[in-house]
Amino acid sequence: MNRRQLLQSVGMGFGGIALAEMLGQTAAAGSSLQGCHFPPRAKRVIFLFQSGGPSQLDLYDHKPLLREKTGEQLPESVRAGQRLTGMSGNQSSIPLVGSPFSFARYGDSGASLSELLPHTAKIADRLCFVRSMYTESINHGPGVTFMQSGSQIPGRPSIGAWLDYGLGSEADNLPSFVVLLTKNKGGQPLMSHLWGAGFLPTVHQGVRFRSGVDPVLYINNPPGVSAPNRRQMLDGLRQLHEHQLVGTPDDEITARIANYEMAFRMQASVPEVVDFSDEPAHVLDSYGPDARDPGTFAANCLLARRLAERGVRFIQLYHQDWDHHGGLPGGIRNECKQTDQASAALVQDLASRGMLDDTLVVWGGEFGRTNYCQGLFNASNFGRDHHPRCFTIWLAGGGIKPGITYGQTCEYGYNIVQDGVHVHDFHATLLHLLGIDHERLTYSFQGRRYRLTDVHGKVVKGIVA
What are the pLDDT digits (tens) for 273-288? Predict the structure, then answer.
């Protein structure tokens, strides 16, 4: 008897061992972790990603000096030779432009917020505003990819995939990583690699939920196929895959088996989680009038809470159309109208259910906007270009210090002058709150051990409670 025959004769062989691991209900199969590295502060993450780069200068980072100097040229001493995009780099004039919106301070924390965010203002004392985020990415594709995967180049695992690989799933009948996109939105395109598994086994990739009859594509039985028929087919298919696995050990085979089994269980769980009929009217009203319209940002925020309740570990929302190169005053007002109430309601809803303490909520985009006008100057109807040197995000719950503003930008809103937070630092802190040492969550691929934070990143201890 050779070695392969011996292994095949022991129980189900390697195929059975791999399958048992892969189909475990709570273990992180193949993970580099055996539980957390230290006690976690958060169990799950809801990331409200605002694609396109919201203008921090018109929402969170009040700069009175820009109003005083509107129409004047950006001083070279402030720009300091930093690169501009191709969209404004050839302008003969780079005029400063202040925000047309009023700002006020809110809560005991005195957080400064724009008039465009009245609902966020009401929860200011629950939030941590980080005004000193920065990135190397100056264009959308690399910028969004960097924020979601720690690399500007597509192909690396996304945050949710890393978490599923490292921590496994708490949900028996739902994916650990779910993606929700606001429907009917323009703006920069969003590609599936943003929630992909990269070089990790595909079982860790995000599952996109859609509005409409089929929230998850291809999980329902086709006409004429009953549930017992589907179960019989899957059992036969699994036997074939197990046979293939014995002769060809491959993570993708076990991932395929696990995905088929999850899809079968989701036939019952998905219709239940997307059905809001059991939600009280006052809860629906708190998220705003759009909450009753599946696929809107408001409805997705409520769905995110329902998914979190059912054990989904990472819930990624994407809301597009913040890319205001022109017509910013009207454009940003419209986006805030769609997102402000629901974002605040989500935080309040989680808090009322005792879930905010162990749920980390993040709001932010891939970069910020310039303090100068793109194109011809018009103080009442202008646009702002991309600005990677400083932008603002906010975080709530999950071990974050509430009611603080971290970091500071210069009086022109162009450079960071205190406590800069790089994208890798943000990722390191997110993992830390989930009980993970970012330097130890690694995966070997093509002769190198990769991690979400690449070879960089430090935990931002100043925002950790």
Answer: 999 999 999 999 999 9
